[in-house]
């Protein structure tokens, strides 16, 4: 058995507005907008697919207060594309943010709810990822995160150093998953988290047990009786194991 990273979930005080922002920012579409969540997916890709990690925005009344440990890096294919993208993001409501990045070649922005993301300079590595180059996670130990997530999912580990671990789907399509070493401690629940799905026909309970054996732990933050299982990885990042699909 194995499982897949199918989407990231963002908390928002105005989920519909944030969904519209990310749909326009990525050139995707809003595929669902219920009282509880807003779904953003690319056109021409049937969910779930390794070609894209979709976005699920959850209605949460509590505003963002600390820097996110999970963020998106957006890819650009040329300097002209980068300039056009930055201008379009500004029109959509993105704002520059200083998180102590210093003099770097990429641009750090925040979406209308304050979620940090980066617009990268053109890089060959991300030329064929689509608009999302990578889902990036702050961590203390990239080696440990590569071990856990490399065994948890059907994604290959491409690189591991003391500073970064980089994974990508076994089909070598879609964005990378990157764990970047940072000294910042985790505080509270993450504003952005992973949603995983087992494959059709797999057993949700058995897959949850497999993840626990790898080092995941159960988390009860008051979610109640839900169809999915809430777990944390070895660095206490929450993630949800959804029903097989």
Features:
alpha+beta, 2,3-Dihydroxybiphenyl 1,2-Dioxygenase, domain 1, 8-stranded mixed beta sheet
Helix tally equals 4
Structural class: alpha+beta
Secondary-structure element string: EHEEEEHEEEEHEEEEHEEE
What is the fold named in CATH at topology level?
Answer: 2,3-Dihydroxybiphenyl 1,2-Dioxygenase, domain 1
Average predicted confidence as pLDDT:
97
CATH superfamily: 2,3-Dihydroxybiphenyl 1,2-Dioxygenase, domain 1
**Percent of residues in helical segments?**
10-25%
The CATH architecture can be named as Roll
Biggest sheet details: 8 strands, mixed
CATH class: Alpha Beta
What does the model show?
The protein has four helices and 16 strands. The chain is an alpha+beta fold and 245 residues long. The chain has a single domain, classed as Roll (2,3-Dihydroxybiphenyl 1,2-Dioxygenase, domain 1), CATH 3.10.180. Strands 2-3-4-1-13-16-15-14 form an eight-stranded mixed β-sheet, with helices on one face. A hairpin with a 5-residue loop joins strand 15 and strand 16. It starts with a strand and ends with a strand. It comes from Streptomyces griseoluteus. Pfam families: Glyoxalase_6. This is VOC family protein.
Topology (elements, then pairings):
Layout: E1 3-12, H1 15-26, E2 29-33, E3 37-41, E4 54-59, E5 70-74, H2 79-92, E6 95-96, E7 107-110, E8 116-119, E9 132-139, H3 142-152, E10 155-160, E11 164-169, E12 176-181, E13 192-198, H4 204-214, E14 217-218, E15 229-232, E16 238-241
Parallel strand pairs: 1-4, 5-8, 9-12, 13-16
Antiparallel strand pairs: 1-13, 2-3, 3-4, 5-9, 6-7, 7-8, 10-11, 11-12, 14-15, 15-16
